[in-house]
Automatic annotation (TrEMBL):
The lineage of its organism: Bacteria, Pseudomonadati, Thermodesulfobacteriota, Desulfovibrionia, Desulfovibrionales. It is a multi-pass membrane protein. InterPro entries: GT87. GO terms for cellular component: plasma membrane. This is DUF2029 domain-containing protein. The chain crosses the membrane at residues 9-27, 107-130, 174-199, 205-225, 271-289, 301-326, 346-378. GO terms for molecular function: hexosyltransferase activity. It is found in: Cell membrane. Keywords: Cell membrane, Membrane, Transferase, Transmembrane, Transmembrane helix. Its main location: membrane. Belongs to the glycosyltransferase 87 family.
Length: 393
């Protein structure tokens, strides 16, 4: 792509960054109180975290899973009465340990602190892996970062856990597993990495993962009792029903299943097609790890497969896509770009911010298509490297 050069690789991210944040601040500051110019709560999903924390301070851990009680708490904080199930609590009680202290300060202060702390963790975990200043620019300006901040979500925490685990996976697999086990706060994001560890017989990492997960479960029971776990398990069928029915917005999701549902494919068939794609992606990524492919390719593939395999992951989870794109881009930069790789990287870089509006208008969900294209590009690069290695030998 001739219109892409080093100067534009710096300029384009900055331009998108400035436009996105200027628009966001204009909308935010045109509202009143905790409401922005569109009538939405500032911080969006964060109101759910803050309300749950407030209920914990009242000693009502199990009530967090009671949708009516949670919405009543949200309305009392925001002075709004139009909340829906999107603000319900579907996390395991482990996450209650992480958000317990949020309501110790005011809502906006808590939102700011939550964002600063989780972004700092995200940035520092990436600093362990990124090689130069240009990589930091791409990271900070990545639209997935924007989506996570404006949604008031925990994508930075998930990305920190996964990338930190990858940092240790070859050198200290038990430590890597201990870190990955923290993802039990959002267990659907640990599913693909767990299967890949199992397929590659990385028992040290698996034992670390089991230890930290079990520890968090025990600590949550000691802190809140057994009742929240029973309530959590009872909410799972409701969460699936709301997601499959479209009550939770498909256009903001990342999965093939959501893409099929948007196209009008029957739910059970959409689920089966998703499972087939997810298992194919997991099998391919496990092969890369078994064959000891270079770190950049297999780490990128693991992150992409994690995002692709989750049935109902959202745009804010794409914060973890940034290191995958940077690793893959650095690998291509080092050994030479193919004719299409730059195009894929550019489309993937902007997909967190363009996929939702396009899906809303056309019912075509770009994110899973782009994730699949990235895996195909990784496969092609891996095959090319294997062929070069065989010629040299």
């Amino acid at each position: 792509m001739k219109f892409i050069n080093n100067e534009r690789l710096i300029a384009y991210p900055i331009i998108i960054f400035v436009i996105s944040w200027a628009t966001y601040f204009a909308v935010t500051f045109s509202g009143t109180g905790l409401t922005d110019g569109f009538g939405k709560t500032i911080g969006a999903d964060f109101i759910c975290f803050y309300s749950a924390s407030s209920m914990l301070r009242d000693g009502a851990a199990a009530d967090v899973y009671d949708i009516e009680k949670l919405m009543t708490k949200e309305a009392s904080i925001t002075k709004k009465e139009d909340y829906d199930f999107a603000s319900a609590w579907f996390y395991p009680p482990i996450y209650l340990l992480f958000i317990k202290k949020l309501a110790s300060v005011s809502y906006l202060h808590a939102l700011l602190l939550f964002t600063l702390v989780t972004f700092s963790m995200y940035f520092l975990s990436m600093a362990l892996l990124l090689p130069n200043r240009l990589s930091y620019l791409w990271l900070v300006t990545f639209p997935g970062v924007f989506q996570n901040i404006t949604n008031g979500q925990n994508g930075f925490l998930s990305a920190t856990i996964l990338t930190s685990s990858l940092y240790f996976i070859d050198k200290k697999p038990f430590i890597a597993g201990l870190i990955l086990g923290i993802m039990s706060y959002k267990p659907h994001l640990a599913f693909a990495p767990f299967l890949i560890l199992l397929a590659t017989k990385n028992y040290k990492a698996l034992s670390g993962c089991a230890l930290s997960s079990a520890t968090l479960v025990i600590v949550s029971i000691l802190s809140f009792g057994f009742a929240p776990w029973g309530s959590f398990l009872r909410t799972l069928p409701l969460a699936d029903t709301l997601a499959m029915s479209g009550f939770l917005p498909w256009y903001k999701m990342n999965s093939p299943q959501a893409g099929f549902l948007l196209l009008g494919i029957p739910p059970e068939l959409a689920r089966l097609l998703h499972i087939a794609i997810a298992l194919g992606a997991i099998a391919f990524t496990a092969m890369l790890w078994r064959q000891k492919a270079n770190f950049n390719l297999r780490a990128s593939a693991l992150i992409i497969t994690t995002l692709l395999s989750v049935p109902f992951g959202y745009d804010y989870d794409l914060a973890m896509l940034a290191p995958a794109l940077i690793w893959f881009g650095l690998e291509a930069w080092k050994s030479g770009w193919s004719t299409y790789e730059k195009s894929i990287i550019i489309v993937a870089w902007i997909v967190p911010i363009v996929s939702p509006p396009i899906a809303l208008g056309t019912h075509i969900l770009l994110t899973p298509l782009v994730l699949i294209m990235l895996l195909v590009a990784i496969r092609n690069r891996y095959k090319s490297e294997q062929q070069e290695a065989s010629l040299v030998s």
